[in-house]
Write a structure and sequence with these properties.
Length: 345
């Protein structure tokens, strides 16, 4: 019995995952998942690669030789026949891009992924056997902000399967790979040793979007001044903090309306103390009132996923509002920021 088999004999329950559970042989060998903290068993990849892109929170990534903490901005690749799991997950959110390595092979003259800066970090695997894994690649907040919408678009392409979806998904996948390999840096690089201050603020809002947040409070949590925080937040996410928070609250409401709570209770839990204001905002952004949404949920005319698809992806993998704030609302929100007033006011 090999040394590796001896080590694995006393491990907790393990599953072997094959490509057949992700994609059919006649289809493009590509699948993407957006996952959150969950009980992940030891699992082995039988015949596919898994590209992991961490969007938020943290976890401990473990195989039989290594254990390392991963957080937002970390990217790594698990090859076929490798095994691993996640422990100590804290608001852990990540994308899994599952694919067959043949997708990376191209015979187009002059096109060579291996010439890109991050190629050897991801594809020169460390260790042997089931413990094979890439080194850690890191992307900063600006790159992550651009990357997540691309991942979300790839997910929609595969899920919706409109005519030409396989061609569209393939070229999106290659675009994502090139973008990562051009813009990522080895995790040990000094430029990426600091945690993401804006990412920390985003995680605070996502953990409880109903909380009364102010620019001052979020800036203090990020270790920066209010003006610097506001500028960096908008530059990185593409939205002012108030609009981002409002998007999170609408997302929560979309999910809660599929439950048994009253409209008023959903409004409060989503961060809208005034149920009338809540109804106006929901109708303005989604084209339906909360009562109409609930009725359509009950009749099967509408699903939460369909409503969530109306909102564009943001830096965290959650959702942003596509429509711009009207000028009057923008002025009112700017005034609210001054003096530390609540963002949701």
């Amino acid at each position: 019995m090999s040394e590796n088999k001896k080590k694995r004999k006393n491990l907790p329950e393990e599953v072997e995952l094959s490509s057949g559970i992700y994609y059919a042989p006649v289809h493009l060998p590509l699948k993407i998942q957006h996952l959150t903290s969950q009980n992940v068993l030891w699992h082995r990849h039988k015949d596919f690669y898994e590209l992991v892109i961490v969007c938020g929170g943290s976890a401990r990534h473990v195989n039989q030789e290594r254990s390392e903490t991963i957080h937002a901005g970390h990217v790594f690749l698990m090859p076929e026949r490798s095994a691993h799991r996640y422990l100590d997950q804290k608001n852990f959110r990540y994308y899994n891009v599952i694919f067959h390595p043949s997708l990376l092979k191209t015979e187009i003259p002059g096109v060579h992924l291996e010439t890109l800066p991050g190629y050897h970090t991801l594809f020169d695997f460390q260790s042997t056997g089931e413990n094979r894994c890439s080194r850690m690649l890191t992307v900063d907040e600006v790159v992550l902000a651009k990357l997540v919408p691309m991942l979300s678009e790839l997910r929609s392409e595969i899920r919706n399967r409109r005519p030409g979806w396989q061609e569209g998904a393939y070229f999106l996948f290659m675009q994502i790979m090139v973008f990562l390999l051009r813009n990522g840096s080895p995790a040990e690089s000094a430029a990426f040793r600091d945690v993401f201050p804006i990412g920390h603020a985003i995680r605070l809002m996502e953990q409880d979007c109903a909380q009364d947040f102010t620019i001052r409070k979020l800036a203090e949590a990020s270790g920066t001044s209010p003006s610097c925080f506001r500028h960096n937040f908008t530059r990185i996410t593409g939205l002012p903090p108030r609009a981002y928070l409002l998007a999170l609250r609408i997302r929560r409401a979309i999910l809660l309306l599929n439950g048994s709570e009253t409209i008023g209770e959903v409004a409060v839990r989503s961060g809208f103390p005034d149920s009338n204001y809540f109804s106006r905002i929901v109708r303005d952004r989604l084209g339906l009132s909360p009562r109409e949404i609930r009725r359509k949920y009950s009749t099967g005319e509408l699903s939460p996923d369909a409503l969530l698809d109306r909102l564009k992806p943001s830096v965290s993998g959650d959702l942003r509002i596509g429509a711009r704030e009207r000028k009057t609302k923008h002025v009112r929100s700017v005034r609210a920021f001054r003096g530390g007033k609540k963002l949701g006011a």
